[in-house]
């Protein structure tokens, strides 16, 4: 049964490109593959890899996906359009393991093949564009992600029946503009996204809450905490109702609310809310998780604003240590963390 299921997955992946132009050699290679021992082996490998991935064991899935891709490339060639689903699957597996340099190579290959065979505005080309943009995003190279995401959204907006994919593309594009501090371009995308979520999913849906939280962050970046506060409070209420008070996503909503309180000068509220967010993340994600470090950094900044430097500095030192350990010395978060603690020390030395 497992072999059969894996084989069916492969057939579906290859058949989705059946309308693409094929040479006689490619057609013969596909015909020879189906029903062959290699076909059966690929089916077993892919099905087992999928089971490992569903269980969260991405390290165990990786060599199986690498082997199945190698077998398919051997059978069909490295430029056959039918290998691109496996390229993307392997890239996603690597992304779960944080190996973004390798995902970049695979996503680039998949996009080049799909653009050449399917054209620059095909639906499956949009998928490859989006995935490549996400690889650049994960590497902190937002300027390179931006044009890919703009193209992705343009394709989805043109094609009928892709409103949901267009909404996702707007979310990713807004996040990139935000990372580049181009907030005037973020706001209209997020307002469109919120309207879509409320219309399609309802005002109490988790996706609506996420859109509210993102919009609140943008208003905060535009120095409009008064606009941000009710949006953030509404997002937190949805998250608590849908996910529970101790869910990591609820903690992320608390992060946003704390920052808004801080920007509004309500430091007691900001401190209480931020400590709650940190507690949730430490218990649910662990003390070294990237999202936990974000809450830890936010808490340190509140202490700094309150001139409680003896409370802020140890937290900032911990953020730097764990960021360097988990993300590497060259990650963009490292200089930001170093700059934060430098400002804290400067403020400390300026005391009378």
Q: Could you please describe the fold and organization of this structure?
A:
It is a single chain. This protein is mainly α and 352 residues long. It has a domain at 1-118: Serine Threonine Protein Phosphatase 5, Tetratricopeptide repeat. The protein is built from 17 helices and no strands. Helix 4 runs antiparallel to helix 5. The chain is globular, with a radius of gyration of 23 Å. Residues 1-9 have low confidence and may be disordered.
Average residue pLDDT: 90
Structural class: mainly alpha
CATH C-level label of the domain at 1-118:
Mainly Alpha
CATH superfamily membership of the domain at 1-118: Tetratricopeptide repeat domain
- Distance between the first and last residues' Cα: 76 Å
The second-level CATH architecture of the domain at 1-118 is Alpha Horseshoe
Low-confidence stretches: 1-9
What characteristic shape results from the CA principal axes?
Answer: globular
Largest sheet descriptor: none
How much of the residues is beta strand, in percent?
Answer: under 5%
Radius of gyration: 23 Å
Elements, N to C (H/E): HHHHHHHHHHHHHHHHH
Q: What is the count of helical runs?
A: 17
- Give a count of the beta strands, DSSP E runs of length 2 or more: 0
CATH third-level topology of the domain at 1-118 = Serine Threonine Protein Phosphatase 5, Tetratricopeptide repeat
List the helices and strands and how they pair.
Elements: H1 2-15, H2 24-33, H3 37-54, H4 58-76, H5 84-96, H6 100-118, H7 123-138, H8 142-158, H9 163-179, H10 183-201, H11 206-221, H12 225-242, H13 248-263, H14 267-284, H15 290-305, H16 309-327, H17 333-349
Helix pairs in contact: 1-3, 3-4, 4-5, 5-6, 6-7, 7-8, 8-9, 9-10, 10-11, 11-12, 11-13, 12-13, 13-14, 13-15, 14-15, 15-16, 16-17
